[in-house]
Specification:
The chain is α/β, with parallel strands linked by helices. It folds into 4 domains: 80 residues, no CATH class; 149 residues, no CATH class; 147 residues, no CATH class; 168 residues, Galactose-binding domain-like (Jelly Rolls, Sandwich). 31% of the residues lie in helices and 24% in strands. The chain contains 19 helices and 26 strands. An 11-stranded parallel sheet has the order 3-4-5-6-7-9-11-12-13-14-26. Strands 15, 17, 18, 20, 23 and 25 form a 6-stranded antiparallel sheet that branches. Strands 16-19-24-21-22 form a 5-stranded antiparallel sheet, with no helix packed on it. Helix 6 packs parallel to helix 7. The two termini are 38 Å apart.
Length: 659
């Protein structure tokens, strides 16, 4: 907004800045351009908003001398200390000097309007006794509505429950919390009485709106159980945002199991009417599923691993109910898959593809409409982060080359025999050249099927096998099998000895090699067929799922056994795929962001001018245009997202850890 009045009172300007300041968003001031003769006087009070206090040793940044100057500066400038809203007390060492506690006691009383207090001490002590009393007094004053505690180690009851004295606390963040006397918290009889003793003079019940917990210790679970007791002054029944991460970081400890089995379902259950944002990481159970109300949640972030199918099943079951889906307010869903998933993130389509498609159909049928600008931004994010995943949504076509196919080249030709059902080759120790079969193909996956002999008594069909596989000249796998004597000359048909589903799209060469020049045992290959898959760039409602025999063995190696087989890899195919995959989404994101910012500025500029003698509308908010844009497909090109009433946000992400 722009105010161009020479007669605008300074009191009104102060009120405008006060209103912007209550949003706790520093970017709010960037949308306000005030023009007046007393701008310096007005802006001076708005420039001192946040203070970071480092209580490290003197060798770090001057230590006590530097902090003392800050205290003196606040004393001599009360108009600035009254503007300070966010105080962060940090240290990068494990044992800060105890003399710094007095500085904390000196600073806190000078901040009458402080509303956000953060501690990140990385220390064996939370706060020293003098500082602890000062912090409790600050919390009792009733101005603190956000409290962040990171890397804190509690020593005594007063320290543990001092955070409960914040009568206006709306947001509580606990990360990497530990305790020195955790056995007392496990005592169900002493914990409530001690808590009431410490908080007996509490004047008002604390009502949290946001709770963020990163569980690192068993006792954190006990602390949560203490909070959830009936007599606890901390009311957690009105949460709007709940984040619980890493409940199974310390495997084998009973306390972390209790978080999922009892505490987390209880938190979800008591907050059914108000909870709008949920972020959960860890294993699931039926109690947890029943505690989540799909009607009220607006934003759902799931950090999943092996329990991904369980989450998808719950989502499908919840939103398949027409009554639930019609009343659902869900607008944002993110599933972040950790590296604990079977195989790796690349196996997600193979394990969960049918569930993805089933839930995808529910998205476009049931979910509410997103704002156009938000829809465009999330569409860009999906396209950039999950281009590899979206690629598997297209239809895969299989091409099978029988051993008689002319596309297969056998070398040396005299070493291969054709009996009508397969091509067989026996490599003998002392052979000058390994036996090979090669081909060229364009695709993303390849499978090699052979017939395996189970007998070693018949010399022509000795069942020993030693096969190596090369793609573009690089060794990518090996199949080795050494069986015992078997009097029955039987065969195993249709055994997949090699499978690779992560080949970049493009033209490739494949070679199967039987034996190697340094081998001391013979090797038999009975080639049946080679199958490769390619993407026909047409949408399909399913993804082909492949399986391999239980006895197949694929071993990744980094080198080649023979010098004559060490052919440089052809990197042009990879480059031809990686370059467009990076540049095209990047250009798309930049273009959409530029267009969105341009339209937003143009809209704001159109409504920002206020005539000198016209009616004033500076107190009214300006809303972005709600002209419907056709949303971009988010998950699968086969899903109908073109209808403006069927826009949704769905994000699937694969990463090692989020926090």
């Amino acid at each position: 907004m722009a105010l161009r009045s020479r007669f605008l009172p300074l009191e009104i300007i102060h009120l405008i800045l006060e209103q912007l300041g209550t949003q706790n968003d520093l970017t709010a001031l960037s949308s306000c351009s005030l023009v007046c003769r007393s701008w310096v006087e007005v802006s001076r009070s708005q420039l001192f908003y946040s203070l970071v206090l480092d209580i490290g040793p003197p060798a770090t940044r001057g230590g006590i001398a530097l902090s003392s100057k800050r205290v003196e500066f606040l004393r001599s400038n009360p108009h600035l200390s009254r503007r300070l809203r966010h105080l962060s007390i940090v240290t990068s060492i494990s044992s800060p000097p105890s003399s710094q506690a007095s500085l904390i006691c000196d600073i806190l009383p000078l901040l009458p309007r402080l509303n956000h207090l953060s501690f990140d001490l990385n220390s064996d002590l939370w706060v020293y006794p003098p500082a602890s009393k000062a912090i409790v007094a600050m919390l009792r004053r009733g101005t603190i509505d956000a409290l962040d505690l990171t890397n804190i180690h509690f020593l005594q009851y007063d320290d543990v429950f001092s955070l409960l004295y914040a009568t206006k606390l709306k947001s509580l963040k606990l990360e990497s919390i530990s305790f020195a006397v955790d056995h007392i918290f496990r005592n169900s009889e002493s914990a409530p009485s001690t808590m009431m003793r410490c908080c007996g003079d509490l004047a008002k019940t604390v009502t949290l709106h946001n709770l963020d917990i990163s569980v690192d210790e068993i006792t954190s679970v006990s602390l949560l159980n203490t909070f959830l007791r009936v007599n606890s002054p901390l009311d957690v029944s009105g949460l709007r945002s709940l984040s619980v991460l890493s409940p199974y970081r310390h495997k084998g400890k009973g306390g972390t199991r209790r978080l999922v089995d009892s505490v987390l379902p209880k938190l979800l259950d008591v907050n059914r009417p108000t909870l709008q944002e949920v972020e959960i990481e860890g294993a699931l159970n039926d109690t947890l599923f029943k505690s989540i109300d799909a009607r009220s949640i607006r934003i759902l972030h799931l950090h999943s691993g092996k329990d991904l199918p369980g989450w998808l099943s719950w989502l499908i079951d919840s939103f398949s109910d027409a009554g639930v889906s019609r009343s659902s307010s869900l607008t944002e869903l993110m599933i972040r898959v950790s590296d604990t998933y079977p195989g790796s993130a690349k196996d997600i389509p193979k394990y969960c593809s049918p569930m993805f498609h089933a839930f995808d159909r529910l998205l476009c049928e049931r979910f509410p409409v997103l704002p156009p600008f938000q829809t465009m931004l999330w569409a860009c994010r999906v396209h950039v982060l999950f281009l590899a995943f979206l690629a598997v949504q297209a239809k895969l076509v299989n091409v099978t080359l029988d051993d008689q196919d002319e596309a297969l080249t056998y070398t040396p030709s005299a070493a291969w025999a054709d009996d009508g059902s397969w091509h067989d080759s026996t490599f003998q120790p002392g052979d000058k050249e390994p036996h090979k079969v090669s081909m060229s193909f364009t695709g993303t996956a390849i499978y090699v099927d052979c017939v395996l002999a189970k007998s070693t008594s018949n010399p022509p069909l000795n069942g020993h096998s030693d096969m190596r596989f090369f793609i573009d000249g690089a060794l990518v796998g090996r199949f080795a099998r050494d069986i015992s004597n078997d009097s029955t000359s039987t065969y195993e048909y249709g055994t997949t000895v090699y499978a690779n589903t992560s080949i970049p799209t493009g033209l490739h060469t494949f070679r199967l090699q039987n034996g190697h020049t340094n081998s001391t045992t013979q090797s038999l290959v009975l080639l049946d067929a080679i199958t490769y898959s390619y993407d026909d760039e047409q949408p399909d409602s399913s993804v082909t799922v492949y399986s391999t025999a239980t006895e197949s063995l694929v071993i990744s190696e980094t080198g080649t056994p023979d010098g004559e087989d060490a052919v440089p890899s052809e990197s042009s195919n990879i480059a031809s795929v990686v370059a467009p995959a990076i540049t095209v989404p990047l250009v798309l994101v930049i273009s959409i962001f530029a267009l969105a910012l341009y339209l937003r500025r143009r809209r704001r500029r159109r409504h920002s001018f206020i005539g000198e003698y016209g009616p004033s509308t500076w107190g009214q908010p300006t809303y972005a245009s709600t002209t419907p844009y056709p949303p971009t497909p988010l998950v699968s090109s086969s899903t109908d997202f073109d209808h403006p009433s069927r826009a949704s946000t769905l994000v699937f992400e694969t990463s090692a850890r989020s926090r």
